[in-house]
Design goal:
alpha+beta, five-stranded antiparallel sheet
């Protein structure tokens, strides 16, 4: 079977339904999947509700591929943390079924003293299915970090609000203006009218939430993502 430019193998009606579901298609009315087995044949397909949502999300992002859709938001939060005096050792966006941001606070590995007794660093994390959290990085003999704690801010919290929530991790002030002398791209930036900070995510990475995609797409134009200094 050729679907969306890819060849897929369907062994029975159930596996065909599964392939169609994952790619956002439904069988058009009046057709029986069982008629395709074992000899094969042709089906008329129609875009499913999920498929139409995926198409709208893709249109929102334009030419930006899905695996980069959280990069701009991450850059805006990194800039806000630095604007409050926080040091960033590293940051990254991981994409599997969901999208995740990891921002490691403190010194980079090259500036740290070697040895197993060096202090563990805090990581500020985000998942598009659940929102913001923090945890301590893994010790040298561990595979996972610890002390996971959800942050009391919305899934698509504004960058300065995320920075305020985690400022205590480096002894920064959780409220007030950023420290003097620090340049934060977009310090006076505000999202457009209708920006949704708390879209109704379900925790299922296969769900498409257009409010989430609209909020993420806003950060494509954030000064921290475009390289501009100031709003």
């Amino acid at each position: 079977m050729s679907l969306d430019g890819h060849v897929r193998t369907a062994y029975n009606a159930d596996s065909l339904r599964n392939s169609l579901s994952w790619t956002g298609w439904d069988v058009a009315a009046g057709q029986d999947l069982q008629d395709l087995f074992p000899e094969g044949g042709q089906l008329q397909l129609t875009r499913s509700e999920r498929g139409m949502l995926e198409d709208q999300a893709t249109e929102l992002w334009g030419t930006v591929p899905f695996h980069q859709t959280a990069d701009a938001y991450a850059l805006a939060v990194v800039a806000a943390i630095r604007g409050r005096g926080g040091r960033i050792a590293d940051w990254d966006v991981h994409v599997d079924e969901d999208r995740r941001i990891y921002i490691t606070l403190g010194e980079g590995d090259g500036a740290r003293e070697p040895g197993e007794d060096r202090p563990l660093r805090w990581v500020v994390g985000w998942m598009d299915t659940s929102g913001w959290f923090t945890f301590l990085e893994a010790a040298p003999d561990e595979s996972l970090g610890s002390c996971l704690s959800d942050l009391a801010c919305p899934v698509m919290a504004l960058p300065e609000d995320v920075a305020a929530e985690v400022a205590h991790l480096w002894g920064g002030a959780p409220v007030g203006e950023p420290l003097p002398g620090l340049e934060e791209p977009g310090r006076n930036w505000r999202p457009p009218h209708g920006y949704v900070q708390d879209p109704p995510v379900t925790g299922d990475a296969t769900d498409v939430v257009l409010d989430l995609e609209r909020s993420l797409s806003v950060y494509l134009h954030h000064p921290a993502a475009t390289g501009a200094q100031g709003a």
